[in-house]
Amino acid sequence: xxxxDAQHHDVHQAPQHQGPSGLGWLMAPGYLRVLWTxxxxxxxxxxxxxxxxxxxxxxPIWQGSIVTTLSLITIPLGFLxxxxxxxxxxxxxxxxxxxxxxxxxxxxxxxxxxxxVNTDHKVIGVQYxxxxxxxxxxxxxxxxIFRAELAQPGTQLVDTQTFNGLIxxxxxxxxxxFIVPVFAGLGNYVIPLMIGAPDMAFPKLNALSFWLxxxxxxxxxxxxxxxxxxxxTGWTSYPPLADHQPLGQVFFNMxxxxxxxxxxxxxLNFLVTIITMRAPGMTxxxxxxxxxxxxxxxxxxxxxxxxxxxAQFFVAFDRVMHxxxxxxxxxxxxxxxxxxxxxxxxxxVYIMILPGFGIIxxxxxxxxxxxxxxxxxxxxxxxxxxxxxxxxWAHHMFVAGMAGWLRVPIMIxxxxxAVPTGIKVFSWLATIWEGKIHFTTPMLFAxxxxxxxxxxxxxxxxxxxxxxxxxxxxTYFIVAHIHYVLFGGSVFTIFAGIYYWFPxxxxxxxxxxxxxxxxxxxxxxxxxxFFPMHWIGLHGMPRRVADYAPEYGTWNxxxxxxxxxxxxxxxxxxxxxxxxxxxxxxxxxxxxNALTLEWLVSSPPPLFNFDEIPTVVGHPYEYGVKGARHAxxxxxxxHAPDEVAVH
Amino acid sequence: xxxxxxxxxxxxxxxxxxxxxxLSSRVPQTILGMLLFIGSExxxxxxxxxxxxxxxxxxxxxxxxxAGSHLPIFVAGMNTIVLVTSSFTxxxxxxxxxxxxRVGMQAGLVLTLLMGITFVVTQAREYSRIGFAPGDxxxxxxxxxxxxxxxxxxxxxxxxxxAATARAFRGHFxxxxxxxxxxxxxxxxxxxxxxxxxxxxxxxx
Lengths: 647, 205
What we know:
heterodimer, A: mainly alpha, Cytochrome C Oxidase, Chain A, two-stranded antiparallel sheet, B: mainly alpha, Four Helix Bundle (Hemerythrin (Met), subunit A)
């Protein structure tokens, strides 16, 4: 037993923490250490390449494209090591004492805390949302540039390769650096609070998952700087085209790996947290639907994301090692890429919408002051979407030359997935039916989502049928559909969620008038931008082209003008968020009179969320039910908001 | 991270600390996390198996392996036996510490490490003498793709085991606390089982 105790003694004999001095600053985790870890890891990458090429007798030893590809792995590792994302595990691996009860990196005392490796899920949530909004703006600015180019037929502002680069980076950033991770951010902030846990199951892994994300984003954005320009194959990056593109292509292949690893780790963390850290009484059938939605999404992420990792590795191998996964001349199968890619990327559209479904369920119920309609069916339809979501990938490939017999089964499964989605839409409508609706900003965005997502969902059913898809493939009808589901759908839920939890995250209230202005500007400009695309798409305007036939000129000019208005509407949002965070009026613990656990604690919540473990005694959505309680605190403080108007 | 829940039994050294965690599942968090991670890893292998399926089955490759390419089934079979045996030594190591037999734990770990290293070295020598390179044909591409992905996982498993070994010799682990040994062990068993699937798919069928 002496030996067994050693581990615990180590903990107490850990070195005391004094500020580093002199050269110690270069060794302590932080941006100073990054200054030497990054060059060191760059050197490691160069060394590995030189060693292999020298041993194999390949010349020349120095190959710029291979160095770049390797650096996209080693430099981020150097950066992450420098800021201290790996310190704990490295100490653990060599058997040094590890301080399991070390909470120095937990919580942010001031703004600097948000730029460090931080293990507090609330800080990480804000880091996620802040980072992803930055990439949302970058991706949006790219859209402004190519909409300016598309305002007239002919090429005026950018050449065709740059245009293709702009649309590709726009899509890649919006998908991998905004929609997917912003939900991880909101979930990070809210899920532990909602289930009554002090933090996520693996706080250090959580910090690492966040820091992997900007690596991918910076990589994709920086691809404009390399010779030949950014990757220009669309966000789908199909070979053989992707095999023969300039160097910028590997910035996509590798950037996706970093963002993908980030989302797998976060999803894993969510799953373990939700399974093992629910407060007493919080059974699966008492969990808020946001938790259900993230549970489902996380299962999708964990089991689907490795497929895009594989697909991008294959393309990178084909480029760097001259393998033949997709080269028919040497026995490869080009359409294989599309199957593997879409086996992730179709489930990915559910990864990009299911957490939004969860947000909407919370907001509609709270703002209508009514229990959610069909709670169990809402949860089960999420699971239905999860299962069916893996069986519809090939509807992206009806015109790709895949096996003909696959078309009809995939069409049927695609139509079937409208059933669980339809259940959700009707349940939401039944939830607000005869409710006492409060038209706050989150509610406006939730209702905007409900109507816009319906349009996107309906055009999705059109596109699910083989005959219509063959007609509409690669036209602006597809662009309209994808933006109705991802902007009118996902982005509206993101705005709804940010406004809804803004008082919880910051402790202050946003400006309601500006919020409503933001909603109406976004809603109108969004429809003016994307609705005409259905029309010109069905008339044959192809997507992903810089130049087009003159008869589409008028519509495109109108679309471009509307898109600038849509871009400008984001400024209202930014001003409102920043200004309200600094000098907004103080928000109470529960400004919406909501029942779920996150509103039980102060705004912003204490460092470890709950001073005492809450006990869950009822369902989370019993609004308007006399005497209904979701949770009580052990101290006897009863949480039962009166039915009072929000404003 | 494994000791997150255990941490609260210790005395605190000042500062704010979380309240005790209520665990709603009897499954240890770290083991659940590792199992989910292995599920994710299986899907990554699935992507590589899918690539093999497309090249060989969907593309209707006439000869597999193509004329002139031969796979050293005997050597790989011997290597398979080595790797499968190492799973048993790993299991021995874990059951030893559960009985508080530290020597058994250390010996089991060292044997496992040695056999894992033997596997990697044998595979490297197999690569250098196999007579084709990854860029020669789609057959060679999928061969190196699957065995290479697996080899990388063996190396990751070895790094995890090396960390567990370092801690085992530094006096860590006890009959009550041995997640740091159990979790690399689970990963190692996964790597072994996955090798059997890779071996059958790539060499035998």
